[in-house]
Design brief:
Blueprint lengths: L4 E6 L3 E9 L2 E9 L3 H13 L6 E6 L14 E2 L10 E2 H9 L3 E5 H12 L8 E6 L3 E7 L2 E2 L32 H5 L1 H8 L11 H21 L4 E4 L8 H13 L6 H4 L6 E2 L7 H14 L2
Parallel strand pairs: 1-4, 4-7, 8-11, 11-12
Antiparallel strand pairs: 1-2, 2-3, 5-6, 8-9, 9-10
Helix pairs in contact: 1-2, 3-9, 6-7
The structure holds adenosine-5'-diphosphate and zinc ion (ZN).
């Protein structure tokens, strides 16, 4: 009998829970809105108790989180501005209720891991996964290991030069006009007075969005030298953003980074997740598998 794993993609908007072994074998799945920790974690536990026995659970969570297994607050959501969710022991609650090992990482490292195992990052040791959604976040691998560090990267909160004539102040509660403050889905909505998904493809919003994302990618490429950049999240459902971003990145780098990946094959360098919106939940399942072999 092959071992079954549980995965939780804990988002600020919704929770996705699944049981299976990978993208081709999801035995059961449920999704529900993220409400209070008690209710949301309770629903996840209830779901797993009704399924066939699982060997471990992996959690890919919104954050900031503590992903350091040697820390006293490992498994906690830490300083999040999301009401009610600061200092919540998410992994501990799941571990105590289900009695199995629990893997825990950021939502973006989860998606990165899913893409590494089954998707667009297979065989790569250095790559990044960015999500442009309610927030902006980035994770990935350096030298074959998921990126951690002091805490974990916060690529959505890098500073960004304002484009001349852009009067929007940004909406990050900590930095106003960081990348997330300027380019998240809600920032697009607030700036243009309409939800991002309702803006037509020829709206000036998208050229400006691509401009800010290309600046961020310029920084990430120079700082981390990723072999590929995978971009997901609701905003990147606007697939016409991809060619705009690729063009602007090439233009900004100006031939400096001497790699065919950027100079000639940028369509395969900056790309959407191969697993689509399944990257996160599949990565959570892979986190569970890793937790059993730790
Ligand atoms: P979350 O980040 O909460 O997990 P999403 O990645 O779906 O969820 O991001 C939601 C944000 O993305 C919202 O701000 C929404 O306006 C925006 N969004 C969702 N779908 C689209 C779309 N098709 N086109 C543009 N923006 C979208
Ligand atoms: Zn910020």
């Amino acid at each position: 009998m092959t071992a079954l794993f549980g995965g939780i993609e804990a988002g600020g908007t919704k929770f996705v829970c699944a049981v299976g072994t990978g993208p081709d074998n999801i035995r059961a799945e449920t999704r529900f809105p993220t409400t209070t920790p008690k209710e949301s974690i309770g629903r996840a536990i209830e779901f797993f108790r009704k399924q066939d026995e699982i060997t471990a659970v992996g959690i890919a969570s919104f954050g900031p989180i503590d992903p350091d297994p040697t820390s006293a607050t490992f498994g906690h959501i830490t300083s999040t501005p999301k009401p009610g969710w600061a200092n919540i022991d998410l992994a501990g609650a799941i571990q105590r209720a289900l009695g199995v090992p629990v893997g825990f990482d950021t939502d973006v490292n989860g998606s990165a891991l899913g893409e590494w195992r089954w998707g667009a990052a297979q065989g790569l040791d250095n790559f990044i996964y960015l999500t442009i959604g309610t927030g902006v976040g980035g994770g990935g691998m350096v030298n074959g290991r998921l990126m951690h560090g002091l805490i974990h990267p916060e690529m959505g909160h890098i500073p960004l030069p304002h484009r001349e004539g852009d009067g929007y102040n940004g909406r990050c509660p900590y930095h106003s006009d960081c990348l997330e403050g300027m380019a998240s889905g809600p920032a697009i909505g607030e700036r243009w007075g309409k939800p991002a998904q309702e803006l037509p493809p020829d709206h000036p919003a998208w050229e400006l969005e691509a401009h800010y994302l290309a600046i961020a990618l310029h920084s990430f490429i120079c700082a981390l030298s990723p072999q590929r950049i995978i971009m997901g999240g609701g905003v990147m459902e606007q697939f016409h953003l991809f060619p705009l971003i690729r063009q602007k990145v090439q233009k900004r780098l100006n031939g400096y980074i001497h790699s065919p990946a950027i100079l000639q094959e940028i369509d395969n360098y900056i790309m959407p997740p191969a697993l689509g919106n399944m990257a996160g939940i599949c990565g959570a399942i892979e986190l569970a598998r890793r937790a059993t072999s730790r």
